[in-house]
């Protein structure tokens, strides 16, 4: 039930989008001002998160007589986390997991509705983790770097350009050669900057079928320094 811990942050993130933007808005009584954009999907997602947590907290309270949890999302999520072993043994455990996982997926679509391209990488490299790694790429937002996520543990997360190091741990390959488009997506920089760095820093290169590929060690040596990503 790892998704349970994600709900408070998702709830707050939806709150920042209530005004129709991704910026925090000032709280007002009686809803948004006339003419002010309002993100209905974000509001509904927040209501659903609160409703689901409230419902399952009620199940725990009724069965365990453990006292009523306060009616706030962070408190409810923490309350359920304290009773997660009891929930896992409950007859409705599968329903809890399915409902919370579905809620996380739906809320993430509200927060970031753009379709993601998913590229399977392989098994998670962290010790004793059974998850699978996937690279998440936003094709329409080239300025946003790719991200690598684990299916089992949300804490196992890396920037897209870390794929090079992860792939070595997975396959023990010595060298990878990257196209300018690959580099631009992984580091979230403009293709023109890739060519400039390649020229200025004399990156090693190879040509295949009319395309140029650059040595990953040279690329990382330059772009792993944040000041160079321009």
UniProtKB/TrEMBL annotation:
User: Where are the annotated segments for Disordered?
Assistant: 15-35
* Descriptive protein name: Helix-turn-helix domain-containing protein
